[in-house]
Write a structure and sequence with these properties.
mainly alpha, Aspartate Aminotransferase, domain 1, single chain, 2 domains, 5 helices, three-stranded antiparallel beta sheet, 3 strands
Length: about 160
């Protein structure tokens, strides 16, 4: 998070120094700042791993867009066809997320996907309870949810 904050500050500084606050110029400043921070990450331990997080973030957004489209099509098909195929249920997902921010991000991305809703976190913060519309194959659903968690933790850690 600190690396991203500094990257945004460098992009704003670029826009201010160039006198052009357009989106394209800000993006150019962001890319320049990213390059500078990638070079500095060896010298500043607080920036360690930042240059790998940005590509992972864009890969995650592509992955999540694909999952979102797939889930939307599945729900739309079930709504539009007369016999409903849904088998709703609640499952417990053991999680590896530790901090409040990691758990919140995981729960929100799960809830953003149609057909799933994060309900609660256990008191020991090791299990996330999820309501799923399509609980035909619990292991397949758990595998998909673990993949979302893995990708989120790659970005956040």
């Amino acid at each position: 998070m600190i690396g991203f904050f500094w990257n945004v500050l460098l992009a704003l500084a670029w826009a201010a120094l160039s006198g052009n606050f357009s989106g394209l110029n800000f993006l150019f400043g962001f890319v320049l700042g990213y390059g500078a921070l990638a070079l500095l990450q060896r010298e500043l331990p607080i920036l360690h791993g930042y240059s790998q997080r940005v590509p992972r973030f864009f890969m995650f957004m592509g992955f999540f867009a694909k999952e979102l489209l797939r889930a939307n099509l599945k729900v739309a098909f079930d709504v539009l066809t007369p016999p409903w195929h849904m088998q709703p249920g609640v499952i417990a997902l053991p999680i590896k997320a530790e901090t409040d921010l990691e758990i919140t991000m995981l729960a929100n991305f799960i809830s953003l996907t149609p057909g799933t809703l994060s309900l609660d976190v256990s008191t020991d913060r090791r299990v996330l309870f999820i309501h799923a519309m399509f609980l035909n194959d619990e292991e397949e659903l758990l595998t998909e949810l673990r993949e979302i968690e893995r990708r989120i933790l790659e970005i956040m850690r």
